[in-house]
Amino acid sequence: MAGTVEFPVLVRLIGRGPRESAGVGCLLRYLPEDPFAVHLQFPGALTEDGEDAVWVFSRELLTRGAAGARVGDGDVRVLPGRPGRTYIQLRSGTGAALLEVETERLHEFVRASEDCVPPGAESGWLDWDAELTRLLYD
């Protein structure tokens, strides 16, 4: 079985006004057992409760967004940024954040995830019995 893909990434929070934020080290993770998704993990030092925060969204969304498309219509959107950069917009009931990430780093992550589980082969990696049990009983 293919292993987990983990890539540290530096993200910069884009704020309103003239303030520029420092980069924050985050982790992009791809799990073969969750083959349609990517996980973006923020360190607990950034959260009110001190726990790591993880956003989970579509690998296809990240792939298309890193390729220059404006994608997403829900809580996560990916769109082109300034040259060599991609924006990831995160929205929740409590706020929103616009993150800037180096596009090439996203491409490297996507390629590594595709080496792990090729596009179109994702459904073969799912444990359908476990997914059904989770849906029915969780």
Automatic annotation (TrEMBL):
<protein>
    <submittedName>
        <fullName>SsgA family sporulation/cell division regulator</fullName>
    </submittedName>
</protein>
<dbReference type="InterPro" id="IPR038658">
    <property type="entry name" value="SsgB_sf"/>
</dbReference>
<keyword id="KW-0749">Sporulation</keyword>
<dbReference type="Pfam" id="PF04686">
    <property type="entry name" value="SsgA"/>
</dbReference>
<keyword id="KW-0131">Cell cycle</keyword>
<keyword id="KW-0132">Cell division</keyword>
<comment type="similarity">
    <text>Belongs to the SsgA family.</text>
</comment>
<keyword id="KW-0717">Septation</keyword>
<dbReference type="InterPro" id="IPR006776">
    <property type="entry name" value="SsgB"/>
</dbReference>
